Amino acid sequence: MTEPLKPLRYATVGGPPHDWQGLLILDAVTGEAVHEVVEVNCDEGWLIRLAKDADGKYLIDGDRVATERISGQFLIVRR
């Protein structure tokens, strides 16, 4: 007998899991999708996403896009 799939509680771009593109990260309080996420830990209550300015343009930090860490309650769901 196979075990049912456990809910994902951690994900990062590049794996785990390897099928990152099929995931959607939600704010568990508002139900709104959180975009530009590169890593999320639901058990610890944080995510890291690409940072943007007020005009929606990516913030650059040296030769890479800056990131920001956000605390909260998040869910990882499959699309």
In summary, what is this structure?
This protein has no helices and nine strands. The two termini are 26 Å apart.
Which spans have pLDDT < 50 for at least 5 consecutive residues? none
Record the strand order, biggest sheet. 1-4-5-8
- The helicity comes to under 10%
Q: How many alpha or pi helices? A: 0
Mean of residue pLDDT? Answer: 92
Distance between the termini: 26 Å
| Number of structural domains | 1
How does the overall form come out from the CA principal axes?
globular
Number of strands: 9
Give the topology.
Layout: E1 10-12, E2 23-27, E3 33-34, E4 37-41, E5 46-50, E6 60-61, E7 64-65, E8 67-71, E9 74-78
Antiparallel strand pairs: 1-4, 2-3, 2-9, 4-5, 5-8, 6-7
Features:
79 residues; mainly beta; four-stranded antiparallel beta sheet; three-stranded antiparallel beta sheet; 0% helix
Descriptive report:
With 79 residues, the protein is mostly beta strands. The protein has one domain. 0% of the residues lie in helices and 43% in strands. It has no helices and nine strands. The chain has strands at 10-12, 23-27, 33-34, 37-41, 46-50, 60-61, 64-65, 67-71, 74-78. The strands form three sheets. It has a four-stranded antiparallel beta sheet with strand order 1-4-5-8, with no helix packed on it. Strands 3-2-9 form a three-stranded antiparallel beta sheet, with no helix packed on it. A hairpin with a 5-residue loop joins strand 2 and strand 3. The chain starts with 9 loop residues before the first strand and ends with a strand.
